[in-house]
Task: structure prediction
Amino acid sequence: MLLLVVGSYILSFSTSIVPTDAILLLIPNLGMGGAQRVFHDHSVELAKRYTVTEAVFNLEGGDAYPSGNPVVSLEVSGGGGALEKTQNFWRRVKELRRLREKKRPAVVVSHLEGADYVNLLSGGPGKIVLCIHGSKLHDANINGPVGWLRKRILMPWLYNRADAIVTVSRDIKPELVDFFGVKAEKILTINNFFEVADVEAKAQELLSLAEQAVYASAPVLVTSGRLTRQKNQVPLLTVFAHLLRQQPAKLVFVGDGELRDDIVGAARQRGLRVYEAWSSAGLSTEYDVYFMGMQTNPFKYIKPATLFVFPSAWEGFPMALGEAMICGIPVVSTDCPTGPREMLAPTTTAPALALRHAEWAEFGVLMPMLTNETTQLADEAVWTTTLLQLLADKGARQRLGQAARRRMNDFTRERIAGQWVQLLEDVIRK
Result:
């Protein structure tokens, strides 16, 4: 959870009005993840105007994206049974209240749902802003009795207590209003921003000679992201196996995650030859699928690829997709909730019925989701046909790659950061 406090006026113990430019940002952890990267970007950018302190439940996962700003750990671990989790939750609420009393922030901004609840219930100094990073309605991890409690009780009851709610995608707002009963006037969409120049510079780094040989041996499809349920990579392996029956190609995964063994196993079950960067096997052109693991510079693997493929089941405003677009290669993405349609076809709205065909949009290709068992075979066939069509059409690839790069000029730090400052100033003045 992320807590943000910005320049406002606070009442001191002597009852005099004292200005403060303190901001408190709260997030559950500082490990690897898209929300953590956005948290880091906000922390760095807002520190140019405010005094920023980062707060985190604990530092057990380290700090994957250090910002240089002070970090305060609430020193409350996660895990355990239901009783222990409940006790830890209320400890976080208590510790955050103490931190708010100490820092006297003007605004507290939380990132991720767990942090939102702690932010909303802790009380103390500071207006409350929530940053919603992904679809709540379609998040398959919000399930079972606890998921029902979160969707039906906690979010509808608590979220309206916030002073403002920021969604990173336009399509999250109607979910919050229509399904969770959040007041529309509390919600503002501010897209994630991207360090365009930094991505472009890193994308110029050369691959090793062995990696260059792989990329030169056949067209390369690349995907980037954690190996998790949300990213839905297993059906992509099925599509790729079908594609290989019709032409040579390579599939490169950049990233790691808790489903690593399952996804590697699924690749082998489909008869694909697998390279694993964490194994002792040497890198060569003899493999079909390459698992490159977590990379400090994923962009050097994306830019020289032929296509970027993005099979996610749900998103927010996906950083990996935007960074691939900055690299100037054509992107093929599921029309999942939320983000890809807003990025690739911004003048359109989500169809009433799930997409069942390839939609050649202005800035990329939107594809059927690969999550419906009833239509799975037909949807995989659409993916295979579309990828083969793109691999055979260099002109279309160049056009889409150039358009994707152009689109990302709408999401530069300079364009987006000012929207956050304006929101915070508006909240402070309320």
Notes: The chain has a mean pLDDT of 93. The chain is about 40% helix and 15% strand. Residues 265 and 274 are 9 Å apart (CA to CA).
